[in-house]
Amino acid sequence: MVDWNKAFEFTWRILVFIVAIAIIVVVSTNWTRWEGGEGWQRTNDAYLQSDLTPISAKVTGYIRELPIRDYQRVRRGQVLARLVDDDYRAAVAQAEANILAATAQHGALKAQHELQLANVQAARAVVASTIAVREQNRRDLNRQQRLLQTGSSSTEAREKLETTRARLEAQLAENRAQAEAAQRELAVLDAQIAQSEAAIAAARAALVVARLNFDYTTIIAPQDGVVGQRRVKPGQLVSVGSQITTLTPLPEVWVIANYKETQLAHMAVGQEARIKVDSFPGHTLRGHVQAFAPASGAEFALLPRITPRATSPRSCSVFR
Description:
Blueprint: H1 4-35, E1 46-50, E2 53-56, E3 61-65, E4 73-74, E5 79-83, H2 86-150, H3 155-216, E6 218-220, E7 225-227, E8 237-238, E9 243-249, E10 253-260, E11 272-276, E12 284-292, E13 314-319
Antiparallel strand pairs: 1-10, 2-9, 3-5, 3-8, 4-7, 5-6, 7-9, 10-13, 11-12, 12-13
């Protein structure tokens, strides 16, 4: 006699097994298509991100004042720290004095140049005067020669005129040399004036640097935001590049959301995004997809993870 209860139970178990196998096959073969299908894609692997600007010292000095608190909201141009500026203030004063000295030296050289111009003109006038006297001596000597031929003059008078002519020739050569030296002195003064102008320019550049260094003793916020924890205390010596604090600009904040590759099939830049933040329960923020990372976050890490090739990397989408 057939035990229908056992037959029914066996048949039921076989059907359950077949249905289970069918479900497993269907789910395993279509899971990726279902997961990457059109519609909303969700992830809990997301976090807020913002630019972080290190605020560092540009000059060396001791901290005089820190007029901010940790995690304080600040405005652009607000003072974050002040360094002891006595040395830099003195450097500015010294640079200003160097400009005055260089300017005075330039003025003295210009005045000396004008004086030398007058000396050149005077030397040329002396040369012209000597030439005129020499011409008069030449005429007198010619006249004396004619008188000597007629017996109306003596040899002694002619010799005196010849001696005077020789003396005038020597004096004319000397005057011309002096005029040439005075003219060349003008070229020397021109070079000195150009050098003094370069010195003035260098002194002005040094003043600009001194004023910049003086301004750098006051560290200000480059933009609106929230400062982080202070890294220094009043009285502490800081050098160039020493970090004072950090600044997070607000409201420039975005969301880094991590998705599987299968979820990115129908995502595109510009699509609407809805964001829920744990800090604001019950509120939904709206944004849009701004960009996709070219690779998973592990690829950009300092020490990338070594994962099997069969493991799907996680890609990042950025929302604002």
